[in-house]
Write a structure and sequence with these properties.
The chain is α/β, with parallel strands linked by helices and 292 residues long. The chain has two domains: 167 residues, HUPs (Rossmann fold, 3-Layer(aba) Sandwich); 108 residues, Pantoate--beta-alanine Ligase, Chain: A,domain 2 (2-Layer Sandwich), CATH 3.30.1300. The chain is built from eleven helices and eight strands. It binds pantoate.
């Protein structure tokens, strides 16, 4: 296990010297099958896989769950042994943000809507730490889950705009058998909340089915009305869970995240809702090519 950036650089240089490509899986720990699938994909792509475990204070708002965020390091290390024992980087806060640290990576545009509107400082914290991890590890590729769809858009934009030589690989969302997207925060849910949380993924499945059934992609006249119908369908489904409070339901261009008024090209449907003090997000990507 590597604790410092200096040691990490040394490890990375050794890998590159041995002609190995490095694949970084950035995480905040509390690992689940979703993270493990990223590690498995990284193992296929690269000869040297690195998992970072760092609960990044910079991406939590003042009233968010930084202090409660689970940190089951022993269990995480045990889980990583089941997927090829990748190298693990576990810095402490002072290593990543030494006294006097005063930098911020800010990406405009795609950081603003949806999560950005509800968590205004969140993405600056994400891009700052992810860029630091990219630079410290000199990684060739980095692996992220589609579940954090907007985060992936933001990181892709950062990589493009700053000419960062890291390939971004996005892996499908891993779900519980009933459809709930896996998340480290699912462990906050009480039994009743867990039972209700499933409406989020169910609402997206319904919306997707509605779009396919109505052959929306094939019609020439895809109008606001249909878009509203989809949003209403999602809303009604989510509202069947009495404790679920919707933050947003959005249908957007998957690259720019601009909201779509008509669905005649690829689209992503994004939802976020709170249940108790836990915030859950999910999304589905609709590829027009699949439905024409
Ligand atoms: O997705 C996460 O777990 C975090 O946002 C990340 C990418 C590890 C940055 O702290």
């Amino acid at each position: 296990m590597i604790r410092t950036i200096k040691e990490l650089r040394c490890w990375s240089r050794q890998q590159h010297h041995a002609q190995k490509r490095i694949g970084l899986v950035p995480t905040m720990g509390a690992l689940h099958e979703g993270h493990l699938s990223l590690v498995k994909t990284a193992n296929q792509y690269c000869e040297a896989t690195l998992v970072s475990i760092f609960v990044n204070p910079a991406q939590f708002g003042v009233n968010e769950d930084f202090y409660q965020y689970p940190r089951p390091l022993e269990n995480d290390l045990r889980l990583l042994q089941t997927v090829g024992s990748p190298e693990v980087f576990v810095p402490d806060v002072a290593e990543m943000y030494p006294a006097g640290f005063d930098a911020l990576v800010h990406i405009g545009g795609v950081t603003q809507p949806f999560e950005g509107a509800f968590r205004p400082t969140h993405f600056d914290g994400v891009t700052t730490v992810v860029l630091k991890l990219f630079l410290a590890s000199e990684t060739d590729a980095a692996f992220f889950g589609q579940k954090d769809f907007q985060q992936v858009c933001v990181i892709r934009k950062m990589v493009t705009d700053l000419n960062i030589p890291v390939e971004i690989v996005v892996c499908p969302t891993v779900r519980e058998p009933d459809g709930l997207a896996m998340s480290s925060r699912n462990r906050y849910l009480t039994e009743s909340q867990r039972a209700q949380a499933v409406v989020l993924s169910q609402s997206l499945t319904l919306a997707e089915k509605m779009i396919i059934d109505e052959k929306i992609f094939n019609t020439e006249t895809i109008r606001q009305k249909i878009r509203q119908k989809i949003r209403q369908k999602i809303r009604s489904k989510i509202e069947t869970a009495s404790d679920m409070k919707i933050d947003y339901i959005a249908i957007a261009n998957p690259k720019t995240l601009d909201e779509l008024t008509t669905i005649d090209s690829d689209a992503v449907i994004l939802v976020a809702a709170r249940i108790g003090t836990t915030r859950l997000i999910d999304n589905v990507l609709l590829s027009i090519a699949d439905h024409r």
